[in-house]
């Protein structure tokens, strides 16, 4: 089971928070803070797993995270999930975001918080992995946004506005979330027999 | 980042002005969310942020309650609320509107409404009830999206008691034509299974259908359920092994559509899941394992692309190979894979490699030897997570020879680590290793000192307790014990010498106890000096009250040793005016004892912390006083829970109307006994009120937790000194420390010969470290290579206990194995050992008795006995008693149905007053060559009384028998442990414990262990378990129809469910009710036409009322109780019983 999914930026500002196990509000904020504290002090060349935060349940729980440009994606899972499997699930989630938002960046997550939640709902449902196939997820999300188009007159405007903003010529446009390391290469390994 | 956002946002209004139409009552919402975000990013302090958000929230509050706000605007407001909530601000005022939006909105608004609800509410929130109808409506909708949303929300936040409402509709969705709906339904049902397994019991067949669904996606979802169910009960799904293997074969063989590929690996997550399921199924099951060898081999072979996800599959594969019944060929391949993980430069893979090594190292220590250099490198890895994982691995391979090096590494890590969780975990491990493998006293005490100062007050409390007990009880050798104690005293005195020492409270408590108890061993230091040191501590402001009590007690003990001590008198004087009552009490006691030297010597004897002082625990000297008081009209004593009940009833505003005050008869208390309240206070913790302190003082100074219980029902059970001298020579202990260094050098040279590469000095250091770390593991040839022979210096008793225990279990398993042959062979087998002959005798005795009884008690044997058979899982007994012969007298309380056990039973005769009560048959729990344990459940009015018979087969007396129930879910009265000084050859003793369930659950295992001494003075241990079901704790609730009516309305939880009716009987309702009544111990209050009301209670006092009605061939039951769990479990048993019929 996945217990919580946290996305925050390099300064610890929450961008997407989804708990699948109930924690009181102040506890949630503490978990976010502590997780950020744990994750942010780790270099990029250490492993992506963290064990046994005392906040969420102790030894049975693991934090599995990935760091993309300005954002940390942290999944808190119990021992019934495979570590590397979740690591790739994060990748799938981010790639899906990238596809749905066309070059996703932190701004998309801020302004389309609801949409990000809908996408997440198609990947993880109530703490259980629902779908790992990116095309399938995108298909479901598109089905829903078709609805939006048919219904949304005014509500379509903000999206247009933001995409216009994104294409403006800002001197320091936020970098796109880097999803370059899709292929984890292990150069010094001979292929398995 | 923030300035980028800022720039973006300043640009926003101009863009939005195209769209936004000012006036016309429309709000440009995006600009509102936008400006909110903008404003927040501009802020510099948390304080300003909270001010801004508060302002924002008050605007939202205004808008939300305005009747002119349209649903569309509401939708935008919700998004803003979600944003505020994410930042940690309370928006509870708007929750109700989120529910409203989900209820009334069109599709898009509904979606936001549901999202908000799922983010805002939790499963215990009271507003959730308002959502049920909306969800029901949407589940029935023809619109796919609405159904999806409803399923999602149901799986996310629905609590136990709301599941029955939606369950039928969700179940129906398993047949839906759209695969996405079927998948979501399967997952929702999985969630329901996790929350309330009993409620989805009836749809297990449908899960099978989902497993065979034509769409692979649905199948994948259903695997999650199976993984959980197989984990809960692996034996129930062995028949599916073939299917899972077939699925995995097809997946690995690429039979799935290409859509399922991820980086050209076919459905990797599915493979991972299947491998995990196979591991669960193949564990300890050779035949199931054989089915999977092929496909595992194939998986190992196919996973050859260097991608993250293939490693994920490989890792699972390796774990599965090592979990199932071993096959050497596969193990070799898996070991090779582990090597690739460990040697990988990818740090994630290295981490997993270490994890895998930790997992397999007990089976195959050689693997750790192969990778020793990598492990050494990992110890110095910059990533603390890798380091910790390495330590975990080292912890698993620790033995008597490498313990110093490993513990040193662990402590070094602990010094750096600041994480509380890591500290607690590692400190516990270090303490365990030190106790098990300590090479000498000095090292042990020093290590424990570090543990105490590092672990501080966060460590597990049993670490200091165990340490003190180890010191107090001593080991095999009296001289060694003295040395250890003396060393501890010396080291603590030198620690206290230091100025400004700031030790954790727990450490100070340990120090003061040891100094109080053993400083007399240090003859060259006057007790006066020790007392002064302690006094200095006492004056420190940082010392907690609890620690002060420990110190005071230590000083009192010191005082008993010295003839006249001015320091002690001074302390007593000073603290007798102290404001803290506990300390004052101590001071006064100290004063009183100083005046009466004789008494002091008596109650504070030297080196006798393990011996017990006789105390009149029943306080019989007060009997006269009590009688007088009663004569004068005082109220009789009531136990606390009765008082509480009465108190709750007397309350003006009764918030707990559900607790029944049941008449507690005097006879029922004859078991609990007078001594129980005082017995409780004896075992309670150290700090407490003054009354408790006196109590403790009376018994002994500073009793430690976990000290053996010596008070049984009959009063004082004589116990010989635990720390008695042991004559037999302890194994000679070669000085490991001294020889280690030489050997290390040898080892290093041997090692370096093995490696073709020339080593520089640094590498040699590492080699040296490696040889000291990995000494003593692996097979014997490796050992001889290392130039060391296994040495088993048995220093600490704990260690020897462990060894004994493993021997014991080994023997037990051998016995079990031989017993697994059919019983008739067993009878014929002439060579069979004495013990099994005994058992056979026992078995035949039982059988004959049973057949005799079968005639007289025909009323209720067949079903019940089968059920009881199921609940007694002990292998030996189920083989010895064939189910047909076994009669179980079931719990029933109408006097006519009470059955008696034949009193001629020479083996297990129940005490006369107990054999009059309803009880079960005596079943065997466990046995070995020397002892047999049997138990009988007595269904008493207010508890379940468990009578345990201990029978000796040994020809010599068995001594120091101790029976414990280390329980968590069961409340054990009287005492959780029984102790017998000795048991004569071929005789039986019994002991009784009252049991109550702490929380209702369908069934649970009572686990216990029996330790005893044989002639050889070795401690042996015998473990046993007994399955208790809820029904053991259910009693009829005898009430009138009127009372029933009153109670019915006062219970909060209710559940309705349809049960099977025994339709072939003449009067189906009565027949069904009678079956339920007989099996479940219910009280039928009334039957009117097609309806009936029933009442029962779970001990001590959780009532449950049932209302039954015959409705279209089913029995519609409606249950109400203060405890939802009780209803659940009771329903589960009802269903099961009726299904069996």
From TrEMBL, chain A:
Chief location bin: membrane
Protein name: Adaptor related protein complex 3 subunit sigma 2
Gene this protein is translated from: ap3s2
Family of this protein: Belongs to the adaptor complexes small subunit family.
InterPro entries: AP_complex_ssu (IPR016635), AP_mu_sigma_su (IPR022775), APS3 (IPR027155), Clathrin_sm-chain_CS (IPR000804), Longin-like_dom_sf (IPR011012)
Membrane disposition: Peripheral membrane protein
Residue stretches in coiled coil: none
Keywords tagged on the record: Cytoplasmic vesicle, Golgi apparatus, Membrane, Protein transport, Transport
Cellular component terms (Gene Ontology): AP-3 adaptor complex; cytoplasmic vesicle membrane; Golgi apparatus
Ranges where the AP complex mu/sigma subunit domain occurs: 1-146
Subcellular location: Cytoplasmic vesicle membrane; Golgi apparatus
Gene Ontology terms: biological process: Golgi to vacuole transport; intracellular protein transport
Functional note: Part of the AP-3 complex, an adaptor-related complex which is not clathrin-associated. The complex is associated with the Golgi region as well as more peripheral structures. It facilitates the budding of vesicles from the Golgi membrane and may be directly involved in trafficking to lysosomes. In concert with the BLOC-1 complex, AP-3 is required to target cargos into vesicles assembled at cell bodies for delivery into neurites and nerve terminals.
UniProtKB/TrEMBL annotation, chain B:
Single GO biological process annotation from the record: intracellular protein transport
Pfam families: Adaptin_N, AP4E_app_platf
Region annotation Disordered: where it falls in the sequence: 804-824
Biased composition (Basic and acidic residues): 804-817
Subcellular location: Endomembrane system
Main location: membrane
Membrane topology reported for the UniProt record: Peripheral membrane protein
GO cellular component: AP-4 adaptor complex; endomembrane system
Record's keyword terms, sorted: Membrane, Protein transport, Transport
Record-linked PANTHER family: ADAPTIN, ALPHA/GAMMA/EPSILON
Listed name of the protein: Adaptor related protein complex 4 subunit epsilon 1
Taxonomic source organism: Erpetoichthys calabaricus (Rope fish)
Phylogenetic classification of the source organism: Eukaryota, Metazoa, Chordata, Craniata, Vertebrata
Encoding gene, per UniProt annotation: AP4E1
């Amino acid at each position: 089971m996945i217990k919580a999914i946290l996305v925050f930026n390099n300064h610890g500002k929450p961008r997407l928070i989804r708990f699948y196990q109930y924690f009181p509000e102040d506890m949630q904020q503490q978990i976010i803070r502590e997780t950020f504290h744990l994750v942010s002090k780790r270099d990029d060349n250490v492993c992506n797993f963290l064990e046994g935060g005392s906040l969420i349940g102790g030894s049975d729980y693991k934090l599995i995270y990935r760091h993309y440009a300005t954002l940390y994606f942290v999944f808190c899972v119990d021992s019934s999930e495979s570590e590397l499997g979740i690591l790739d699930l994060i990748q799938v989630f981010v790639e899906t975001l990238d596809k749905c938002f066309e070059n996703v960046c932190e701004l998309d997550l801020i302004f389309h918080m609801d949409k990000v939640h809908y996408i997440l709902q198609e990947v993880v449902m109530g703490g259980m992995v629902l779908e790992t196939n990116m095309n399938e997820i995108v298909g479901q999300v598109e089905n829903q946004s078709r609805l939006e188009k048919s219904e949304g007159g005014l509500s379509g405007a903000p999206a247009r506005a933001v995409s216009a903003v994104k294409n403006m010529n800002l001197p320091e446009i936020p970098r796109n979330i880097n999803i370059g390391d899709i292929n984890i290469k292990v150069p010094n390994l001979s292929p398995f027999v | 980042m923030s300035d980028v956002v800022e720039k973006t946002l300043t640009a926003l209004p101009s863009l939005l002005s195209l769209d936004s139409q000012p006036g016309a009552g429309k709000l440009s919402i995006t600009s509102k969310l936008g400006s909110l975000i903008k404003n927040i990013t501009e802020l510099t302090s948390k304080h300003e942020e909270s001010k801004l958000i508060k302002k924002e929230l008050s605007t939202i509050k205004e808008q939300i309650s305005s009747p002119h706000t349209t649903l569309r605007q509401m939708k935008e407001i919700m998004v803003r609320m979600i944003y505020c909530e994410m930042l940690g601000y309370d928006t509870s005022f708007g929750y109700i509107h989120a529910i409203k939006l989900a209820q009334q909105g069109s599709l898009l608004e509904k979606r936001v409404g549901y999202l908000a609800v799922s983010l805002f509410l939790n499963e215990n929130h009271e507003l959730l009830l308002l959502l049920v109808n909306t969800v029901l409506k949407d589940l029935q909708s023809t619109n796919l999206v609405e159904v999806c949303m409803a399923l999602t929300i149901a799986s996310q936040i629905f609590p136990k008691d709301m599941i029955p409402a939606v369950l039928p509709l969700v179940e129906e969705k398993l047949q839906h034509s759209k695969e996405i709906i079927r998948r979501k339904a399967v997952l929702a049902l999985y969630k329901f299974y996790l929350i309330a397994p009993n409620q989805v019991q009836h749809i297990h067949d449908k899960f099978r259908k989902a497993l065979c669904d034509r769409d692979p996606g649905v199948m994948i979802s259903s695997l999650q359920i199976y993984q959980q169910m197989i984990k809960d009960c692996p034996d129930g799904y062995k028949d599916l092994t073939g299917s899972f293997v077939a699925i995995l074969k097809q997946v690995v063989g690429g039979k799935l559509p290409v859509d399922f590929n991820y980086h050209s690996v076919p459905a990797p997550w599915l493979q991972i899941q299947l491998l995990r399921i196979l591991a669960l199924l193949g564990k300890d099951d050779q035949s199931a394992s054989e089915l999977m060898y092929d496909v595992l081999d194939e998986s190992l072979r196919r996973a050859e692309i260097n991608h993250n996800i293939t490693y994920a599959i490989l890792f699972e594969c390796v774990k599965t190979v090592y979990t199932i019944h071993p096959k050497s060929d596969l193990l070799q391949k898996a070991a090779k894979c582990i090597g690739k993980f460990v040697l990988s430069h990818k740090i994630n893979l290295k981490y997993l490699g270490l994890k895998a090594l930790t997992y397999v190292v007990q089976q195959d220590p050689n693997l750790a030897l192969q990778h020793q250099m990598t492990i050494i490198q990992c110890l110095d890895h910059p990533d603390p997570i890798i380091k910790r994982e390495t330590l975990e691995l080292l912890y698993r391979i620790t033995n008597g020879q490498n313990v110093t090096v490993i513990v040193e590494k662990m402590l070094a890590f602990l010094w750096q680590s600041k994480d509380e969780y890591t500290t607690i975990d590692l400190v516990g491990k270090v303490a365990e290793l030190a106790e098990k493998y300590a090479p000498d006293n000095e090292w042990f005490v020093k290590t424990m000192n570090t543990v105490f100062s590092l672990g501080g007050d966060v460590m597990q409390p049993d670490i200091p307790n165990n340490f003190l007990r180890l010191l107090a009880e001593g080991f095999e050798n009296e001289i060694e014990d003295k040395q250890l104690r003396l060393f501890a005293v010396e080291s603590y005195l030198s620690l206290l010498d230091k100025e400004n020492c700031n030790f954790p409270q727990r450490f100070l408590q340990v120090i003061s106890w040891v100094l109080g108890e053993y400083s007399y061993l240090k003859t060259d230091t006057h007790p006066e000096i020790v007392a002064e040191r302690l006094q200095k501590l006492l004056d420190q402001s940082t010392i907690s009250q609890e620690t002060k009590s420990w110190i005071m007690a230590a000083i009192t003990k010191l005082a008993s040793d010295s003839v006249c001590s001015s320091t002690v008198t001074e302390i007593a004087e000073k603290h007798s005016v102290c404001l803290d009552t506990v300390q004052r009490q101590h001071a006064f006691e100290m004063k009183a004892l100083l005046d009466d030297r004789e008494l002091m010597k008596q109650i504070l004897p030297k080196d006798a912390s393990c011996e017990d002082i006789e105390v009149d625990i029943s306080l019989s000297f007060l009997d006269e006083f009590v009688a007088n008081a009663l004569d004068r009209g005082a109220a009789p004593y009531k136990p606390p829970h009765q008082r509480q009940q009465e108190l709750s009833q007397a309350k003006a505003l009764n918030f707990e109307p559900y607790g029944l005050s049941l008449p507690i008869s005097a006879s029922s208390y004859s078991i609990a006994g007078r001594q129980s309240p005082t017995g409780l206070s004896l075992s309670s913790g150290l700090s407490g009120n003054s009354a408790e302190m006196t109590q403790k003082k009376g018994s002994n100074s500073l009793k430690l937790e976990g000290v053996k219980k010596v008070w049984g029902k009959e009063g004082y059970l004589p116990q010989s000194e635990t720390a008695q001298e042991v004559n037999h020579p302890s194994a000679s202990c070669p000085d490991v420390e001294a020889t280690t260094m030489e050997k290390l050098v040898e080892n290093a040279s041997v090692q370096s010969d093995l490696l073709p590469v020339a080593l520089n000095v640094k590498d040699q250091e590492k080699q040296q470290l490696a040889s000291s770390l990995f000494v003593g593991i692996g097979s014997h040839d490796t050992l001889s290579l290392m130039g060391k022979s296994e040495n088993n210096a048995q220093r600490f008793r704990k260690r020897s206990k462990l060894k004994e225990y493993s021997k014991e279990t080994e023997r037990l398993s051998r016995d079990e194995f031989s017993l697994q042959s059919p019983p008739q062979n067993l009878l014929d087998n002439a060579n069979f050992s004495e013990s099994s002959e005994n058992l056979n005798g026992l078995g035949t005795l039982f059988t004959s008795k049973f057949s005799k009884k079968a005639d007289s008690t025909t009323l209720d044997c067949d079903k019940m006995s089968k059920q009881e058979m199921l609940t007694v899982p002990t292998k030996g007994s189920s083989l010895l008693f064939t189910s047909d012969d076994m009669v179980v007298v079931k719990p029933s309380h109408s006097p006519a149905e009470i059955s008696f056990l034949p009193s001629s039973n020479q083996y297990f005769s129940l005490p006369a007053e107990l054999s009059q009560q309803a009880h079960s048959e005596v079943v065997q729990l466990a046995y070995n060559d020397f002892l047999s344990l049997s138990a009988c459940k007595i269904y008493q009015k207010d508890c379940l009384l468990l009578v345990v018979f201990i029978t000796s087969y040994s020809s010599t007396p068995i001594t120091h028998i101790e029976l414990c129930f280390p329980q968590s879910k069961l409340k054990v009265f009287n005492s959780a442990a029984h102790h017998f000084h000795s048991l004569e050859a071929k005789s039986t003793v019994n002991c009784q414990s009252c049991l109550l369930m702490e929380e209702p659950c369908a069934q649970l295992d009572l686990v216990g262990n029996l330790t005893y001494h044989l002639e050889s003075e070795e401690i042996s241990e015998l473990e046993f378990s007994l399955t208790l079901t809820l029904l053991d704790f259910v009693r009829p609730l005898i009430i009138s129809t009127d009372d029933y009516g009153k109670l019915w309305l006062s219970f909060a939880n209710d559940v309705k469910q349809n049960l099977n009716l025994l339709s072939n009987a003449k009067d189906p309702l009565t027949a069904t009710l009678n079956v339920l009544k007989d099996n479940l111990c219910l009280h039928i209050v009334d039957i009117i036409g097609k309806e009936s009301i029933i009442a029962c209670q779970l001990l001590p006092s959780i009532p449950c009322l049932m209302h039954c009605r015959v409705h279209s061939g089913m029995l519609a039951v409606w249950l109400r109780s203060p405890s939802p769990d009780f209803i659940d479990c009771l329903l589960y048993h009802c269903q099961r019983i009726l299904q069996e019929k």
